[in-house]
Structure to design on (557 residues):
């Protein structure tokens, strides 16, 4: 098993945090993981993306030229990656900001209204954890338990309220997938 | 060994160095390694016995390294390609005065200002001198997060043992990428062996001199031969390499650092399809691990050197092989990171040339292709 996931959106959406939490969760399950943030001449408010590889064997390259999973948090990210997703893979779209879906029959499209769900929860910034909860519920890359524990690790030393909020976000995303609402 | 943590390569180097007893860091910012000085600044701010200085230039920082080293500290500096060029004068002085220090180069695209993407164009500079004069620098080339942690410790130990500068040669991607790492227990610098040559005040004892100026040519010649004998000892004792699936290999891919882990992905892919390909990965670039490679060249048909440059380590491979087998090259300079699939295609191309004269290439079936795709 070697699965590559690209998380993409604009700066401030918590895109790197999504990848980081997933990678820590994979590490907790003793899987091989790499987390590669895009770096370059980045600009404030510009696009942010990262690639996470989860594998049961040594990882050759942390770069994904055709990822199994793509998470697009805004429209430009969907456009950038729609033709790169591997056949049989999945594309997760933040349907609040992306109204158009890619015309591909060989890829599963999962729509998650992350902004709306976050707003309903009372914290607009939870959208990244909601999306990550949904991604893991669909893909099974790691267990929901590992993901929750990874949030604790990543936010170690922060206020308990913040940790709880992020964990609830993960659960909300998973519930959206399992119940459709 | 502690529990595993997920850390980026630059931070792993910083933590590894501190655990190795490093208590002095001097540097000047340059992408893509700024997270290393950032880590050292934050960590040293909490330690009473450590010093961090962001110098006014690369030149100043390498000269501060000389000062801290001559006073006995385990000292480190870091930069990326253009900044390392600026430090070369100081590295030559370190070598001449036989001072231990660790220098990190997170290589980026070049020459000139180049770009900030990962590359391997500084191999010649790192292994063949870099600065002026007849000297060598031990060069360690990690490929994995865990290896960065291990080599950080090893670099300081080698530097002190041989009284010589040691370079850790990584690249921009290695510095940014996060992988799980377990660190060794920290060393207390006070527990390290005393350095009798350290300049710490001559009260009550004859003065000591550490210098690199020898106007008397006879004395300078003796300095050069003494360094030469030290480099000979290093060349015998320090070479290290990883040999992966080389036992039954008919063709060998030679690569180091990030290029090596990509090449390994290519090798794995081709093994699934029945190609007898192995990987030879130098972990020390100087001294270059020539002997095992020379042994391999007696029984394989071909070697392919893969580098993120136009071909630099290629020369050391050819020197080790001495014409016993064909050596060819595939490279992507300028900041391009190949995929394992791309390298696999480059290997296949060479492998088929070899089997035109020898045994037939393995039959590639739809099943073996599918199997390979799953494992790559």
């Amino acid at each position: 098993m070697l699965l590559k996931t690209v998380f993409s959106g604009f700066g401030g959406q918590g895109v790197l945090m999504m990848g980081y939490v997933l990678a820590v969760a994979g590490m907790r399950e003793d899987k091989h993981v790499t987390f590669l943030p895009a770096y370059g001449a980045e600009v404030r408010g510009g696009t942010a993306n990262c690639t996470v590889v989860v594998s049961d064997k040594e990882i050759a390259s942390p770069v994904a030229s055709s990822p199994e999973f793509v998470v697009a948090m805004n429209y430009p990210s969907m456009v950038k990656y729609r033709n790169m997703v591997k056949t049989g893979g999945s594309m997760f779209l933040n349907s609040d900001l992306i109204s158009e879906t890619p015309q591909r029959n060989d890829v599963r499209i999962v729509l998650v209204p992350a902004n709306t769900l976050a707003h309903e929860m009372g914290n607009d910034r939870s959208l990244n954890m909601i999306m990550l909860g949904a991604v893991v519920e669909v893909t099974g890359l790691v267990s929901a338990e590992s993901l929750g524990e990874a949030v604790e690790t990543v936010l170690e030393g922060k206020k308990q309220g913040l940790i709880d909020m992020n964990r609830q976000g993960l659960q909300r995303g998973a519930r959206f997938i399992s119940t459709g609402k | 060994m502690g529990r595993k943590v997920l850390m980026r390569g630059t931070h792993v180097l910083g933590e590894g160095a501190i655990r190795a007893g490093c208590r002095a860091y001097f540097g000047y910012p340059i992408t893509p390694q700024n997270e290393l000085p950032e880590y050292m600044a934050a960590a040293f701010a909490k330690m009473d016995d450590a010093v961090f200085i962001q110098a006014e230039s690369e030149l100043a920082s390498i000269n501060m390294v000389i000062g801290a080293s001559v006073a006995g500290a385990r000292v480190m500096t870091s930069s990326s390609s253009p900044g390392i060029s600026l430090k070369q004068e100081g590295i030559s002085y370190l070598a001449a005065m036989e001072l231990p220090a660790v220098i990190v180069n997170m290589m980026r695209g070049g020459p000139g200002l180049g770009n900030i993407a990962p590359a391997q164009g500084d191999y010649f500079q790192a292994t063949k001198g870099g600065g002026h004069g007849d000297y060598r620098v031990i060069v360690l080339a990690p490929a994995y997060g865990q290896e960065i942690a291990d080599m950080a410790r090893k670099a300081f130990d080698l530097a002190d043992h041989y009284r010589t500068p040691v370079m850790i040669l990584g690249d921009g991607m290695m510095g940014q990428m996060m992988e799980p790492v377990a660190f060794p227990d920290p060393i207390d610098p006070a527990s390290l062996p005393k350095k009798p040559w350290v300049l710490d005040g001559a009260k009550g004892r004859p003065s000591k001199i550490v210098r690199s100026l020898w106007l008397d040519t006879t004395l300078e010649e003796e300095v050069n031969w003494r360094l030469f004998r030290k480099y000979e000892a290093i060349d015998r004792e320090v070479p290290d390499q990883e040999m992966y699936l080389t036992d039954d290999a008919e063709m060998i891919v030679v690569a180091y650092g990030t290029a090596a882990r990509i090449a390994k992905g290519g090798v794995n892919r081709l093994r699934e399809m029945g190609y007898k390909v192995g990987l030879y990965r130098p972990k020390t670039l100087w001294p270059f691990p020539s002997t095992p490679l020379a042994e391999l060249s007696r029984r394989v048909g071909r070697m392919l050197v893969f580098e993120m440059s136009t071909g630099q380590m290629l020369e050391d491979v050819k020197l080790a092989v001495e014409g016993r087998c064909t050596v060819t090259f595939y490279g992507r300079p300028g900041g391009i990171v190949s995929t394992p699939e791309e390298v696999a295609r480059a290997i296949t191309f060479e492998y088929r040339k070899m089997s035109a004269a020898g045994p037939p290439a393995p039959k590639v079936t739809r099943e073996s292709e599918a199997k390979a795709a799953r494992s790559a």
